[in-house]
Amino acid sequence: MRDVAVVGFSQQQMKELDGSPTCLEILVPIIQDLYQQTGWTKSDIGFWCSGSSDYLAGRSFSFVSAVDAIGTLPPVMESHVEMDAAWALYEAWVKIQTGEVDTALVYGFGKSSAGILRRTLALQLDPYVTQPLWPDTVSLAGIQAREGLEKGLWDENAMAEVVARSMSDAEANPWAIRKGATSVEDVLAQPLYADPLRRWDCAPVSDGAAGIVIAAGDKAFEARQRPAWITGFEHRIEPIAINARDLTVSSSTASAAAKLNGRLDGVDTAELHAPFSHQELILRNALGLADDVRISPSGGALTANPMFSAGLNRIGEAASRIWSGDSDKAVAHTTSGPVLQHNLVTVLDSQKGI
Amino acid sequence: MAPTTESRVLHAPMKVEFDYTRSLGSVLSPFMSALKQHSVLGGVLSDGRVVVPPPEFDPITHDAVTDLVPVSDHGTVTSWAWVAEPVAQQPLEKPFAFAQVLLDGSDAPILHAVDVDSPADISTGLRVKVRWAEETTGTIRDIACFEPAGDSESDGSASMDFGPPEVTGIISPVKLAYDYAASPEETKFFKGLSEGKLFGQRCPKCEKVYVPPRGACPVDGIPTTDEIELPDRGTVTTFCVVNVPFQGQTIPIPYVSAYVLLDGADIAFLHLILDVEAADVRMGMRVEAVWKPREEWTTDLNNIKYFRPTGEPDADYETYKHHL
Predict the structure, then answer these.
(1) Is A229 helix (H, G, I), strand (E, B) or coil?
(2) Complex ipTM, two decimals?
(3) Handedness of CA B84, B85, B91, B94 (dihedral sign)
(4) What angle do CA A317, A301, A253 make, to 5 degrees?
(5) How far from A315 is each of A47, A62, A338, B74, B89, CA to CA, in Å?
(6) Which DSSP state fits A22?
(7) Which residues contact B44 (CB under 8 A, 6 or more apart)?
(8) Residues 118-137 of A with CB under 8 A from B
(9) The pLDDT of residue B1
(10) What digits encode the pLDDT tens for the residues B24-48?
């Protein structure tokens, strides 16, 4: 395996982008910022990969206009995933492992506010017996939350603690959309919206984009003194049929963690992609995180969840803490699909070596 | 959705609609056929569990599921969430619950809607029964929703004898609504059209002029910031003659769709060439825009009805060969 590190990260998040769903106007400054951070330019990047969705954008081949942001003449080596850009990062990491390139720039973007997000996302469900009912993401999460509540796996207080901690932490995050020091009592005083969920239990609809640069071996030191080395990268998927899964656990996350075979030991920071409060509780359990691990210091997805870049943001936020020395070893988690269907676990370390 | 304050870019409502036609396999065909006859089938897995709706393959052994058995149209709510603000195409237009319902005789729940008036009227353990659609067609929507069953007992469907599946395909209508926004650069272009002007933008680095303007120069990856007003005349660089009739066609065939390189632009502009026999259109032909009457102008490319020949001599090939 080649040593690969995260060496650049830039993001923009907003409640509502007053612009086109190509997000070009926010992608251009992100990519310029990444050049500035790394000292590299377009010709130093070996591979490009993006994550976005045509259904979110309301246009076919939505990524084609967005590639103008990187300048594609003369042609570049480019690819796209119809998933969160964290999976685009995975593809780029594999590309570097092949030895074909040493560097890659990955970006994701989405304008969730253009449609009704919780409805648009019904299109990722099985198209025969589930999607035709248009179950929205909030309802599916509510069913999942209630199952855990009634089985006694968590309670309202535990969910409110996640919300209060996320919103309080997000005060320090200039990109957070929902933030402000909040207590468990404040959270529990909020009315129920999608019983058993309060609005604050659900990630705010968010627009935005993000980009990450990764590089192999010594190349990484050209861009960062203390690169965030990717020492583990595993993803797993569960059945599309909701009734073929136990919704109160994340068996795919647990399976990815098991495959990491001890490489999560000693993690001090975790950035978890949990768009609903109770999902953080499920993920913490699936990853077997110790009680003293710092969870989502950025405020996490409950405070901003731009579709197709929120998962990449988790990796970027975790890497930033390695760069600054606030963390020596961090885990970033990304989810995609209905109620935690796909899960990607990334281990970032201040030390090289897989 | 639509911003409440005045937007810096143009917005328009946009609908995307498509009826997906899907074929059903050896498991879902009998399942949908049974629904049409007011009966629910479950699939028997390798461990003996009965699952509704039936999966096509066993999730553990990955063997094809072949054994289907009738289950009851009565069941028990195992989990639910309240839908305070239903969205389009959901089973009920008023607030309702989405729930997991474990049908009697099955071992895994089916996700569907339950028609109750408030969260106080539903709880885990509630007995519910299928409310069939007024007309069943062989889709999951043949179950209109579930409703509280009270003391009622299932009539049972276990005695029904199913022949060969009569339903082998479904149509799933998708209707999405967006508030579609133009980019800031496109907004300038469309606002210009409403004043009878054609605006392009120039890349500050390579100085190429794009019309309609793009958010970034595809060569340099930087915003195209300098605004340029372009004339409404140019040169046909390439074209095609449309001879094939298609649904929704409004122009009599044959007609010409062409790339027009507006004078001063570095990218061709796609439009129609009319007022000339299709056979007479050629590369290098000089053309000009024919605008709609001024009172009909909107922020729309249709403000230009079409391009027509100017009668000037053809442009020299050298002047447009780089744009082919």
Answers:
(1) strand
(2) 0.94
(3) positive
(4) 85
(5) 19, 24, 21, 47, 36
(6) T
(7) B50, B65, B67, B68, B69
(8) 118-120, 123, 127-136
(9) 45
(10) 999 999 999 999 999 999 999 999 9
